[in-house]
Amino acid sequence: MKPVFQYFSDEEVQLIHGSALDILQNTGMQMPCQEALEIFNDAGAKIENNNIIKIPAGLVDQALKTVPKLSEVTLYARDPKHDITFTDEQVPVLATMGEATHV
To answer: Among 23, 36, 68, 77, which residue is least crowded by beta carbons within 10 Å?
Structure first.
């Protein structure tokens, strides 16, 4: 049986998603990388003040539909003996000493 961990209810997930879409579309995010600005602009995002990207909700939804559904994901280390593979049959647990984790 697949382990299940659900921190947020479905309604809370939808609320968070809606709030994120609102921020991306109306507030935007600052992007210092010119190449990224061009990529977002070409994809249909609005660029304001030379470095603020505003991404329409439809563009986010379109991008999310292109994400492949994977049954496993591997985080590769410099040394392959430290690679970590997550499957849909396990709940990944990553511990830190308080610092943020970027994946």
So the answer is: 68
